[in-house]
Amino acid sequence: MAIFYNTSPFRLHLVIPASETITNFRKSQVLCVPFIPTKLWAQVGMDLIGPMPKTPRGNQYIVTLTDYFSKWAEAAALPDKTAQGIGTFIYSVSFYH
What we know:
Blueprint (H helix, E strand, L loop, with lengths): L1 E6 L2 E6 L15 E5 L8 E6 L11 E7 L5 E6 L4 H14 L1
Antiparallel strand pairs: 1-2, 2-3, 4-5, 5-6
């Protein structure tokens, strides 16, 4: 089992041996392994923010996507948090880059 958390500017992977269970988990047993991306779009982070007050265009959510290597960020406003809307955003970002 692995536990992941984000720490700027690196993403740290906390690795727990498979023989351990969550109840036996101790911080002293965790190995911190920094993951440093070596090329563009090798690792990205995504966040969905909202609900926010509705805009005149009917949007209530903001979706963001950040490339950890270049620190390039993309954002878009969405009317809802459906898989189709988020998928369209991911497709549009990957298509243009």
